[in-house]
């Protein structure tokens, strides 16, 4: 998801609002944008209503422009019109909009499926072996397994992590724990966290 945090100032006070939209593949974004332009015409891209009518397309376009470091009028569409109506360069408003790409939405994880591997990896290890043994949760993956998966990924071996993860999930399933995370996403997000 993409996340927008807008900071606006009125009467000397500032506040932040937040909006989260799903990330669109650039090819999907292009197709959706072509559909909008076909149905509504080029003028749709300069109307402030575009932000509310097509939020997913708008924020993905804005994110894409940010990534390719291209100047655009798009940030102006989401900001209020100045009361003095003075002509201001729309690109000067860009600094008041913060866009952050989040590669995972934590609200999608249910307790039943357990946390993804990258969150388990981030948790701090207890120092005492006794505490470590007492805190072992049989409803989630063992940290030792996660370390083995990371080691295999560092050696450009993807088959071993898949097999290891499949075996561990099978063990969890026999204990009544069903993990719904995609194998690919679980391993990819772990690699992003552990290796960068």
From TrEMBL:
One cellular component (GO) term of this entry: lateral cell cortex
Any one Gene Ontology BP term: regulation of basement membrane organization
InterPro entries reported in the protein's UniProt record: DENN_Domain_GEFs
Segment forming the signal sequence: none
GO MF terms, alphabetically ordered: calmodulin binding; guanyl-nucleotide exchange factor activity; small GTPase binding
PANTHER family: DENN DOMAIN-CONTAINING PROTEIN 4, DENN DOMAIN-CONTAINING PROTEIN CRAG
Protein name: Calmodulin-binding protein related to a Rab3 GDP/GTP exchange protein
Organism: Drosophila simulans (Fruit fly)
């Amino acid at each position: 998801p993409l996340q927008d945090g807008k900071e606006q100032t009125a009467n000397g006070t500032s506040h932040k609002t937040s909006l989260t939209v799903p990330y669109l593949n650039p090819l999907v974004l292009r197709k959706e944008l072509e559909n909008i332009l076909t149905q509504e015409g080029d003028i749709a891209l300069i109307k402030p209503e575009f932000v509310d009518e097509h939020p997913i397309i708008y924020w993905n376009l804005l994110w894409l422009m940010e990534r390719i470091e291209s100047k655009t009028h798009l940030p102006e569409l989401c900001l209020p019109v100045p009361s003095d109506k003075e002509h201001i360069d729309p690109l000067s408003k860009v600094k008041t909009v913060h866009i952050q790409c989040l590669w995972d939405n934590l609200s999608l994880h249910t307790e039943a499926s357990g946390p993804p591997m990258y969150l388990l990896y981030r948790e701090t290890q207890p120092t005492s072996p006794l505490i470590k043994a007492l805190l072992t949760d049989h409803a989630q993956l063992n940290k030792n397994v996660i370390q083995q998966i990371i080691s295999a990924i560092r050696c450009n071996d993807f088959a071993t992590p898949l097999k290891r993860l499949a075996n561990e999930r099978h063990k969890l399933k026999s204990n009544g724990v069903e993990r719904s995370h995609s194998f690919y996403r679980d391993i990819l997000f772990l690699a992003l966290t552990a290796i960068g």
